[in-house]
Amino acid sequence: MLIRRWQGATFAGAGMAVLALLAALGERAGVHAASPTGPMLLVVSKAENRLAIVDPASLSILAWVPTGDTPHEVAASPDGHRAFVTNYGTLDSPGHSISIIDLTARKEIQRVELGDLTRPHGVAVSGGKVYFTAEGARAVARLDPATGKVDWSVRTGQVGTHMLVVTHNGKKVYTTNIGSNSVSDIDTSAGTATQIPVGREPEGLDLSPDGRELWVGQNGDGQISIIDTTTDQVKGSIAAGRVPIRVKFTPDGSQVLVSDMAAGELALRSAASHQETRRIPVGAAPVGLLISPDGKRAYVAATGANQVVVVALLQLSVAGRLAVGSQPDGMAWVAAGPPP
């Protein structure tokens, strides 16, 4: 099945048993009951149907929270009180819900049923609302957390509507369509979608901090397309390795980080010159990618190694590893822990 070509893979081998044991030991020894007073890192475990709440300073797991079936991505509210997890489901059983997690109580407080908006995946919080993709419906939709209801949706009409970003002013949503080799530009006011043709199997994408460029990684041809957001035209393309499945700008906009899934590496690239400056081995099948707000650390979910790998961006080296359940993927940053 095209849409699950990469992320739905099953990782096997003797080393997996060792990593599973490490994860179990980490859960028993590293889970703390006290509420964090500082930042939190959220990580979904696809194969274990749960969300890890992590102290990024000590790399200890503060809590595990059960979610729906096969969660893939997570976003957090700016106030640090809620997390929203998309429950994508399996090849045979499409997911159809979003888990709302109370980060103070550390539990799922609502599982929003989405009806025909099946296979929810990419997710982002903007203007107090939760935007998400629905692959099964070929759509982007919006959840109002206050009511627990979907209050807006737009059909892309494209195959594999997967990841998304929302512009800073909330006026546009960009989403990648893996099976249609396109990016949809969605006007949130008009409720219309315009298609931008790109290369093969686009998936990861990110906006530059100034909002002028959208970088799109393409799994099928190893390229990154750069879209001028003023014209919504592709203005250039970069050879970016084997499978550039995730793309993230650093907060200052100077660099772009790329998870090369097939190579098992994190690639660093100059946003200005487009030149690759470094590659850092991180482990099997790196997918999920997150950068701390201060730009000092990158967190890479090595899905095939059952680890989150911490990369110190100033030293350009691996600073730590955390066993965080089977098949970690989507991550989110909570700037400050909610009050106890």
Characteristic key phrases:
4-stranded antiparallel beta sheet, 340 residues, mainly beta, 1 helix
In CATH, the homologous superfamily goes by the name YVTN repeat-like/Quinoprotein amine dehydrogenase
Q: Work out the strand percent.
A: over 45%
Unreliable parts: 1-36
How many domains, as an integer?
1
CATH architecture: 7 Propeller
Strand order of the largest sheet: 3-2-1-28
Mean pLDDT across residues:
90
- Give the fraction of residues assigned to helices: under 10%
Give the C-level CATH assignment. Mainly Beta
How many β-strand runs? 28
Oligomer: single chain
Structural class: mainly beta
| Rg over CA atoms | 18 Å
Query: Sheet with the most strands?
Result: 4 strands, antiparallel
Order of helices and strands: HEEEEEEEEEEEEEEEEEEEEEEEEEEEE
Q: The CATH topology is what?
A: Methylamine Dehydrogenase, Chain H
Termini separation: 44 Å
Number of helical segments with 4 or more residues: 1
